[in-house]
Amino acid sequence: MKKRMRSGKGTLAIVLSVALFGTTAYGAQAPSTVEAAATQAEQTTPHLTYEEALKKAKNHSVDLRDLQKTTDFLQESKEDIWDKVGNFSVPIYDYQQWVNDAVFAYTSAIYTTDSSMTKNKYATQITNLALEATLKSTFSSIIENENNLKLLKETSEIQGTLYEQGKTKFGLGLISQYQLDQLKASYETSKTNVYQLERTLEQMYMNLNDLMGEAVDKKYTLEYEVEFEPYVLPSSMEAYINAALKKDYSILLKEQAIEDAKFKQNYLSEEDNSNNKSNKFSYESAQRELKAAKQDKEIAIRNAYVQLQQAEVNYNQAKADLALAQADLKTAEVNYKVGNITELTLTQAQLGVTQKELALEKIVFAYDMQVFTFKNTSLMSGSSPSSNSASAS
Prior knowledge:
Elements: E1 3-5, H1 34-44, E2 47-49, H2 50-60, H3 62-85, E3 97-99, H4 101-171, H5 177-212, E4 221-223, E5 226-228, H6 237-247, H7 249-266, E6 267-269, H8 276-337, H9 343-375, H10 385-388
Parallel strand pairs: 2-4, 3-6
Antiparallel strand pairs: 1-5
InterPro entries: TolC-like
Signal peptide: 1-27
GO molecular function, one term: porin activity
């Protein structure tokens, strides 16, 4: 079963009020201006899809530009070697062999250039995946907080109305100074909550704009659709892990490190054998590191799958909670119309639905990120392109 979450292109359909000490607030409530303001802002704010943002982010990424420059440099180096020696083929190094210094120098250059190009390619792929994950997280966080902000603004507006009513009640002797101070404190707290979340959103938009290379104060209406569809493992867990390890870029980098160490151990200069022992040690160390990396990755994959299953349970529970809250609201609406309950009880039911909707939305966005990471295991266990990037030297 699919559940689709959209961006905050509309406003949350909720009317909040808070009763005073178990009684309903009296006086007609003025229509909320938040929804009208949001609609006007949406009309003037440019829309931005995830795909558009990703394209901008990749074009702006300093890391990707540096990796591309490294690719260009290595390609030029490869062509220079080609011009000098007339071919570009990696020598066989499955067994130890000794060659003279001249052959060793250009052959080592051939191998090093080829290896560096391979590592640079893997590092580029990791950087691309990390950028996608960062952008997904940024989009979902902004949308979640924008929806929360709408709720907080409605709450603050109602708190302000109740405070004004409270001042009237106090003048009539219906409430005490302490009760009025409580109303004022609640209103001030609601304004503070709105202010703090607005600043948080400003920072999030600054981070988004920084990723894309846009003006720091630019705002958008984000268009980001996420569907909740329970992930189905395409094979057995063992088969999935084996397939994942073969295309995991962090593992491929470890395997390339073994090849580098193997070349240094087996392809030797006749004039200099002083590093034989250290080269052998480096080769064995690289093998141990690969084995440990695969074991760690396997554990990470298994844990990630368990977390996916847990998230699916949480989603189903959140759906059930929402359905219950919606049923409570329908019952409350009927009872309110016939005068069986106060406005406070109705408002609590409305608020309960909105809270459950936001809780469900949060789970959907988080699950989408979990699935993305599970499908791209290079992102697991903190693999970092900066630590794995190829050297051009």
